[in-house]
Amino acid sequence: MTEVLDGTLLARIDQLQASYAKALDALDMEAWVANFSPTRGQYELTTAENVKLGLPVGMMLDDCYERLQDRIKFVNEVWAQAVEHYQPRHLLYRSGCEQDGDGYRVTTNF
Question: Is pTM, for the whole model, over 0.90?
Answer without folding.
Answer: no
